Amino acid sequence: MTDRGKLAEKVRRALATDGLSDKMWASTSRSRGNRARAVQELGIDVGAMKESVRGLKARAMSDPDLPRKFAEKVEGNGGHVFFAKDGAEAIDYVAGLAKAHGAEVLAKSKSLTSEEIDFDHALEARGVRCVETDLGELIVQMAHERPVHLVMPAAHKSVADVASLVSQSLGKEVPEDPDAILKEVRAYLRPVFLSAKVGVTGANAGIAETGTVVIETNEGNGRLVSAAPDVHVVLIGTEKIVNSWEDAAEVVSAAALSATGQLTTVYVSAFTARSPMGGRSAGRELHVVILDNGRSKMKADGRYAGALDCIRCGACMNVCPTYSVVGGHTFGHIYPGPIGIPWTANVHGVDNAAFSDLCISCGLCKEACPADIDIPMMIAEVKQELVDLHGQPRANRFFAGSETLARLASATAPLSNWSLKPRAARLAMEKVFGVDRRRTLPAFSRRRLRSRLRGVDGGDGSSGKVVYFPDVYADYNDPELGVKAVKMLAALGYEVKVPKLKWSGMPYISYGEVRKAAKVAAYNVKALAGYVQDGYEVVSTEPTAAYMLRDAYLTLAPGEGSRLVAAHSHPFFEFVEPGLGRLNLAPSRGAGAELGFHIPCHDRALTGGGPAVRFLTAAGYKVDIVETGTCCGMGGTFGMKSGTMGYDLSNAVGERLFDLFRGSRCGLACTESSVCAAQIHDGTGLQVLHPLHLVDFSKR
Amino acid sequence: MASQYAEAFARAFESRSGTVSFAATREETSAALRGVARERRASLVAVAGIPAAVRETVIGALDGIEVIDVDRLGGALPKEAIAKADLSVTWAAHGVAREGVLMEATWDDAAKLASCLPLTNVVLVSGERFLPDFASAMREAGKMVAESPAPKPTISFIGGSSRTADIEGRLLYGVHGPHSVVALVLEWA
Lengths: 700, 189
What we know:
heterodimer; A: 3 domains; 20 strands; elongated; B: four-stranded mixed sheet
């Protein structure tokens, strides 16, 4: 079986495992909810937080001497420092310490860096037993599994699972009651804390100015592991070292908020030197193992250096739609989730990062990341590496060429539309191209947008000048949408141009064709920058296109041109909103009709759906935002692909949203994205329309 | 009269599952400590890190209950002795208003264990030692560490009871450390 075949099989098994998706979804939804509530109730400026974390990380990364400075301070305070170039060196060092101190058992608090180097198993192989003391880590250790999530290692286990594991491990019957389990675990671990000669912790930050290590826990196990044993070993990746206490404070706050919606974890410990125990200093030692393990290589590689800014909060996992239904044992190697993809590719090898196929390019991970890491683009780069190594699967090739296909289908419509209807034709398309026969495909229009615009008033320019960017859908499938957009812009006094451009190129990113995406971006940026310099603003009705222009092109086509285009590009409703007072708006579907509104992922970072909702409300609709807090599951064309790694997984994600739509009283659904519309329609049977198709307008 | 910061701290700390009491006098302090000890049926209390000006009040309040004086333990096996305590009384250098956390500074890990091991931890903090937020507390902690001669202090921020949500996301208290944490704000100290 190929690696891709193995991944599909893992996904199939995960979706079929009783209760797994529900548990993962419940866990990630809870975390999303807690974070959103905290941000709202406490008035946290997320943008400022991101900027601050990015800034402090940039300062740290720009100083190649920072790890050495940190090490010198640790040593100046009496600690020992060992620089490990890889996991084997780190393990050798700790195994040596354990032997020197006669330690057969190590008490350990949660350390993702230790997971990265398979620390526990390697130590066990040398006769040293590591006892995980974080409850979640202990549960997965008892199950001989890996953590399913960075912050919630046992999110996939039920109370019954945990009771059974604890019963087996402790050799006594423990009831299926969380309090009873907790009592047993406390009683089991207390002697471990008190008798272990060596304790191992990770670190959330290392502070170079004083040589201080900072760790965060909610359970307090980190405090015990770092205090009770005579020897304390800290395993810290080079990327965790920051300049100052102020910087560490930012990291701690951002991690707690993003992970669980807390302002800080219950315990934040900062230790600078080994303290005596009851006045006794003899035998009390602090060892800091600073691990590279591929980090220097990452830092030197422009594509992945940003991944080193990760503060391990797990927020990217909590918003990831596919992770939320399959969990980290499928969506991960050792590092799970979206950020796990670039980390895995760099520290465990790109072939182990083949789970990148589970990324459906919704972009929510970047939005959620407190360090503003461009995770989607890094994932695209990993996919490109895998395509270069192993080739592109047939269905991905088909959908990566969507624009060419659309041009062909449009040129041959209505024949192409008719040919898509018979069951035999859909079956053949599924067999040959990998297009799922159950998916409703959009019809193509013989006359494209520019042809339809002949004779349409292009506006007098009294309010300014606009380039309308239709992307594929409003050009080939629904040019009437483009016509309405142009008419509204003209009614608002804009002179509108629809120049010949390429599509936005998003599917190239989705399917790991970054070089092709960069060519498209360069072409569009060159063309659009010229218009912008002539005073035009760029407007698109497709949220993905606006996202590409405003965000992705900055990376794909770096330079002044893309910065200019990004600064002058707008999602449609954000752009027209200030002028809506100059229009009469009326609902085309009856005043007071109730609409279920879905916010497309790519619009979340841009407008959050607000301008479109206000537009519909101003026209007289009652708008009910129907949201799960993550993607609808379609992921561009991902949900059009056949089988597990397409339609099935897409639907497994979408089911949660479909349930909400079914539970709402809305007889009509609305979204700005053409592909979200297809997903919601197929999942619920509701008619789903673009806001412009729901509103009649005229000049006041 | 509690400061604005102390009051903000109390609200935030209680929202994190902690309990806050204010004591305007030594007598109120004694009464509060006796009350907690009685309520928790404490038979062995670990006392650590209490400044000299307050120490007598604390020890006096616990009259009749066996006390482990952690700062003077000195000899062998202090951690096992502390582990036997069912209540501890410790000292915080600062309270932090916005986040509702206490900042503990210890120079001996036996004192740190006093706030880690017993099921109930009473943390005393001067009413005049409150800081507005975590960022300012970290700055203060950094200054304290940088300026302190060896041995450097260990700083612990404590925001309530030891807790976990690792079993189906249910919030459970007292997994390793204290099941309950009481902040006693001394307005006289």
